[in-house]
Amino acid sequence: MGIYTASEKRYETMRYNRVGNSGLKFPAVSLGFWHNFGSGGNYENMKELCRTAFDNGITQFDLANNYGPAYGSAEENVGRILREDFQPYRDELLIATKAGYDMWPGPYGNWGSRKYLIASVDQSLKRLGLEYVDIFYHHRMDTETPLEETMGALAQIVRSGKALYAGISNYDKEHTEKALAIMQELHCPCIVNQRRYSIFDRTIEEDGVKEACAKAGMGIIAFSPLAQGLLSDRYLYGIPEDSRIARDHRFLKKEALTSQRLEQIQKLNQLAGKRGQSLAEMALSWVLRDDGVCSVLIGASKPEQILENVKVVENLTFTDEELKEIDCICENESERNGYKYEN
C-alpha cells in the first residue's frame, strides 16, 4: 500500500483514543524518533519507516530537539521527509517535539527556562520546516527553575500559534499536579504526560502518576513500552551481535539481561503465544489494556517491525488470569536500572 492511497483506507484498522479530556485523539500506536533517524541513519529507510507508519494509521510522529545523533538531526531528517512526501497530509498528522535536555553549549541550552524553551521551539520549527507543531513538551522536570516560568513559556508558545497543545514528559505526580494547576490558571491546554511504562517498569503506577492523570483528565503516552527491546523476541536466547545491547551501551546495558530477566522474558513469550500474539504485541497490549494510556510510542529500524506492532490493536483484552500470571512472572522486580530513564 503506497502513501497515496485513499485516506479512509489507512484508518480502517488503527484505533484512536481520546487524550484525557481534550478534543484530541492519539493513534493507539505512535512512531517515536528517538533512535534510527539521526545523521548516521539511512535516509531512504527513514522515509520508508514514515510511509509504512502513515499507511497503517500511525498519525503521530514524536520527536525532540536533541534526538539524533547529532542533536537536531532527527528533526532535520523528518523535516525533509515532510517536505518531500507529506505536504498534502499535514492536517492528517500530529507532529510532537520537546525541549528540556542538553541541546547547545552555554547556560541557555538546557533545562526549563523561558529563554531555552522559546528558543528551542523556534529552532525546532526551522528544522522541521513547519509553522507549528501539534504538541510541544517540556522534556523533564527542572527543580531549579520556577515551575510558573516553565509553564508560562509553554503557554506563550501555544498562544503564539507555534504549538496547538502543551505537554510534559518525565514529570512525577507532585510536579504533574502543580503543572496542571498552573496551566489551568493560564487557560492553556496541557493535555498529556509522556512517561516510561512497560511490564518491566511500572513506576507510573507506583508513584501515582497514572491515577493522578486519570483523575485530572490528562492523557498519558508511554515510551519504551518494550523496555528497549527486551520485551520482544530479540533477546529470547541471549544477546545477538547486531542488537542494541551489543552495539550501543548508552541506553540498554548488558547488565539488564540477567538470567532472572531472561527467564521472565521466556515465560512472558510463552504466555503471548497462548494468546496468539508475539511477545512485543502482548507487551504493547498490556500497556494499552485500560484507558490509563492513550498511546504507546514504538521505535523501529525496519518497516516490518511497524507492521507487527500495529497488530496490537486487534487484541487489547486480558483475562484476570492472564494479568495475574504476568504479575506473578514479574513480581521479583530488582533490575529496573539496567537502562536509562529519560527519552
Summarize the structure in words:
Keywords: NADP, Oxidoreductase. By secondary structure, the chain is an alpha/beta fold. Helices cover 38% and strands 14% of the residues. The chain contains 13 helices and ten strands. It has helices spanning 7-10, 43-55, 73-86, 114-128, 147-159, 173-185, 203-206, 209-216, 244-247, 259-274, 279-287, 303-309, 320-329; strands spanning 16-18, 25-27, 29-32, 60-62, 94-99, 133-138, 163-169, 190-196, 219-223, 295-298. β1 and β2 form a beta hairpin. α6 runs parallel beside α8 and α10 runs antiparallel to α13 (320-329). The longest helix has 16 residues, at 259-274. Residues 334-341 have low confidence and may be disordered.
SSE succession: HEEEHEHEHEHEHEHHEHHHEHH
Overall average residue pLDDT = 92
Unreliable sequence segments: 334-341
Spatial strand sequence of the major β-sheet:
3-4-5-6-7-8-9-10
Largest sheet descriptor: 8 strands, parallel, barrel
| DSSP strand tally | 10
> How many helices in DSSP terms?
13
Q: How would you classify the helix and strand content by structural class?
A: alpha/beta
Which band does the percent of strand residues land in?
A: 5-15%
**What is the rounded distance between the termini?**
31 Å
Helix content: 25-40%
Q: What does the radius of gyration come to?
A: 19 Å
Shape, please? globular
InterPro entries: K_chnl_volt-dep_bsu_KCNAB-rel, NAD(P)_OxRdtase_dom_sf, NADP_OxRdtase_dom
Protein name: Aldo/keto reductase
GO molecular function: oxidoreductase activity
Family: Belongs to the shaker potassium channel beta subunit family.
